[in-house]
Amino acid sequence: MIRLETDEEKHINFMERIYAGEKIEADDWMPDEYRNVLIKLISMHGISEIMGALPEKEWVPKAPTLKRKLGIMAKVQDEMGHGQLLLRVTEDLIKPLGKTREDIMEDLFNGKLKFHNVFHMEAPTWGDAGLIGWLIDGAAIITQTNMLNASYGPYARALKRICAEEVFHAQHGEAIILALAEGTDEQKRMVQQAVERWWEPLLMFFGPGDAKAVGTSKQDITAKYRIRSKSNEELRQDFFTKYVPRILSIGLTIPDPSMHYDQEQEKWIYQQPDWEKFKEIVRNKGPKSQERLRLRKLSYENNEWVREALARPNDAR
Amino acid sequence: MTELTEPLFKKAVVELLYQLADDDFILAYRGSEWLGLAPHIEEDVAFSSINQDTMGHAAMYYGLLEQLGEGDMDTLSHARGISERKNAVLLELPNGSGHYLKEPRYDWAFTVVRHFYYSHAKKVKLESLKHSSYEPLAHAAVKISMELYYHLMHWTVWFNQLMNAGGEAKRKMLEAISRVEQDFLDVCSLGPLSAEMASLKLIDGDDALMQAFHENMKPVFDALFIPYKGEFQQHSGKGRYGEHTQELHQALATLTEVYRTDPAAAW
Ligand SMILES: [Fe+2]
Ligand SMILES: [Fe+2]
User: Fold this and answer.
1) Are A133 and A169 in contact, with CB atoms under 8 Å apart?
2) Partners of B163 in the β-ladder
3) ipTM, two decimals
4) If residue A262 lies in a helix (H) or strand (E), which one and from where to where?
5) Which of A255, A146, A272, A260 is CA-nearest to residue A204?
6) Residue A76 to residues A128, A129, B256: CA-CA distances in angstroms?
7) Does some domain include residue A4?
8) Of A50, A64, A294, B209, which sits with the fewest C-beta atoms within 10 Å of its C-beta?
9) Of the candidates B59, B172, B262, which has its C-beta nearest A66's C-beta?
C-alpha cells in the first residue's frame, strides 16, 4: 500500500541525506528553514558580488598602466559573472515562492537584502583598488572555500568555479600591492593608508564571533544543515594566520598594537571591531551605501525602456 | 617589398597604428564607464568582456608602435596630449549625461548604435589589414578579427532586437542612428596620409573602405525594412587631424589620473 510521507518523515530523510554527504538539488524537497537560509545566504552573496564591482568601478579607467587596466577589467568582469551565477542559483530557490529577479532587486533597493559590509566603504586611492583584490578577495576565498562542500549542490558547484577565479583576483591584487610596497615613498604611503582604512572592515567581513555581538546569527542554522563547517571566528583566525605574516613581511603596519599570536591559547589576540558600527553599515548607513545603491537604482530606472523592449514580442516595422 | 627604412612607409605605418590604437583605447574606456549600469547583469558581464578585448586590441597596437621605437606603450597610451590623439571623434563622445560615478544617465540606444557601426567599420578595416604590406599589422589583424567576430554578433543582436521592438525603443534607436551618422565620416577616414597608406598597400583607401562598409550595412537595414541612406557627416571635428572635443579632455584626465601622479614610477 502506498502511503504519503509526512513532513516529519521527509525531514528525517532529508537530514539523513545531507549527513550522508549527499547533495540536495533545486527540485528536491527541502525544509522551509533550509530554503530560506539558502535564499538569504546566496542572494546576499550574489548581490555582494555585483555591489562589490562598484568600489572598483572608479579604478577601472584610472588604473595606471595598460596591463593594470586589463587586469582590473578582467577582475570586475569575473565579479559580475559571479553575481550572475549566484542570482541564477537564487532564482531557482525562490521560484516555488512565486518570486523572480525583480523581487531580488526590489529587496536590495528597499534594504531587505543586505550586501557585505566591505562594499559600503570608500576606496579613495589606487592603493585601495589593490588592497581590495589582495585582502578582500583573500578573505572571500577563506569564507567561500569553507562552503565548497555545502549540502546544496548548485551552490557548491557555483562556489567551485568562483573560488578558482578568486585566486586570480588575489594574485592581481597582490601584484598591485607589491609594486606599491616596493615603490616610491608616496606609493608606500598609499598602500599603508589603505591597510589602515580596510583593517576594521576586514575583521567585520567574517561576521561577529557569536550571536551576542549583533543579536542574531545564522551561523548555527548553516552549520546544522551542513552548508558551512567553520565558525566566523575560526575563519577570522585562518585569515590572520595566512595574511598577518604577509602584511608584515612587505613592510606594512597593522593598525592594532594588541595584535599578536598567543602560543598558549593557540590563537590570535586582536582588538574587536566596533560591532555597533557594523550593524549600522550593513543597514545601508555606511559611508558609500547610499551612493552605490543610487547608481544601481538609477541604471534600473534609466534602462526600463530596454527591459520593456526585450519583454515585448517583436512587432517589426 | 616596401621597407621600414623608407621614411614615408614608416610614417604611414605609425600614423595608421595611432588611429587604430587610439580608437580602441577610447571606446574601451567609454564602454567601461557602463560597468554596473548595463540593462541587466548578463549584459554587464558580456559588455565588460568586449571592453576588455577592445582595450587588449589597443594594447596590441600600442605594442607595435613601441616596437617601432615610438616609446613605451604606457607612455603612448597615457602621456600623449589631446592634439596628438588620432581617434575618431565619435568614439570619444560621452555615453549620455552625468558622470560614470555620479548620476549617470546613459543612453543604451546610442551605445548600441555606436558600437554596432564601429564594429562593422572595424571589421572592414581588419579584413583589409589582413593583407597589409606591414606584416606585424597583418598578423595582429588576424588575431583581433577572431574576437571582433563575437563583438559584432553581440551588437547585431542588440541592434535588431531594439529596432524590431518598435515603440519607444525604435524611436530611440532611430534618433541614435542619426546622431551616430552625424559624426561617422571620421571613423571610416584614414586622415592626411590616406592616399599614401593605400598606395603603399598598408590598407585600402578611404573610398574602398567606405564602399565595403555600405555593402555590409545595407542588408541589415533591408532586413529591417528601413531605407539605408549611408550619408555620413563630421560635425564635431576631425579626429584623424587631431581635432577633438572637450569630452576627450575629460576622458584623458580620468584615464591618466593615477599615471600622471608619477609617470616614472613602476605601477
Ligand atoms: Fe567574486
Ligand atoms: Fe573576486
Assistant:
1) yes
2) none
3) 0.97
4) strand A260-262
5) A272
6) 15, 11, 19
7) no
8) A294
9) B59
Cβ <8 Å between B262 and A186: yes
Instruction: Using CA coordinates, name the residue in chain B closest to A129.
Output: B258
> Nearest-CA residue of chain B relative to A46?
B41
**Closest alpha carbon to A42 in A23, A26, A22, A57:** A26
Has this prediction a pTM greater than 0.90?
A: yes
CA distances from A143 to A80, A96, A162, A258 (A): 19, 28, 12, 24
Over residues B101-119, the pLDDT tens digits come to 999 999 999 999 999 999 9
Distance A162 CA to ligand 1 centre (A): 6
Closest-CA residue of chain B to A180: B267
* Contact at CB, A64 and B101, closer than 8 angstroms: no
Q: pLDDT tens, B46-99?
A: 999 999 999 999 999 999 999 999 999 999 999 999 999 999 999 999 999 999
Interface check for B79 against chain A (CB to CB < 8 A): the answer is no
**Residue B232 Cα to chain centre, angstroms:** 16
Q: Distance between CA atoms of B140 and B64, rounded to whole angstroms?
A: 9
pLDDT at A317: 41
Show the cell assigned to A165.
577565479
pLDDT at A314: 61
Contact A275/A214 with Cβ under 8 angstroms?
Answer: yes
From A200's Cα to the closest Cα of chain B, the distance in A is 25
Q: Domain of residue A165: give its range.
A: 11-206+215-316
pLDDT tier, A251 (very low <50, low <70, confident <90, very high otherwise): very high
Residue A316 pLDDT more than 80? no
B62 touches chain A (CB under 8 A): yes
Is A305–B257 a contact, with Cβ atoms under 8 angstroms apart? no
Residue A8: count other Cβ atoms within 10 Å of its Cβ. Answer: 8
The verdict on a CB contact (< 8 Å) between B166 and A315 is: yes
What 3-state DSSP class applies to B106?
Answer: strand
Report chain B (267 residues): mean pLDDT per 10 consecutive residues: 81 98 98 97 98 98 98 98 98 97 97 98 98 98 98 98 95 98 96 96 97 97 95 95 97 98 97
Q: How far is CA A249 from CA A126, A182, A245, in A?
A: 21, 12, 6
Distance CA B82, CA B185 (A): 20
Domains and CATH numbers, chain B: 2-261 (1.20.1260.10)
Is residue A197 one of the residues assigned to a domain?
Answer: yes
CATH number at residue A123: 1.20.1260.10
**Residue written as grid cell 566566523:** A232
Q: B45 vs A295: CB contact, 8 Å cut-off?
A: no
Cβ-defined contacts of B256-262 (< 8 Å, 24+): B256/B78, B256/B79, B257/A62, B258/A59, B258/A62, B258/A63, B258/A64, B258/A126, B259/A64, B259/A65, B259/B74, B259/B78, B259/B79, B260/B78, B261/A186, B262/A184, B262/A186, B262/A187
Residue A27 confidence (pLDDT) above 90: yes
Q: For residue A74, report the distance from its CA to the centre of ligand 2, in Å.
A: 10
Domain count, chain A: 1
Q: Are A135 and A202 in contact (CB under 8 A)?
A: yes
**Residue A116 zone, left/alpha/beta (φ > 0; ψ -120 to 50; rest):** beta
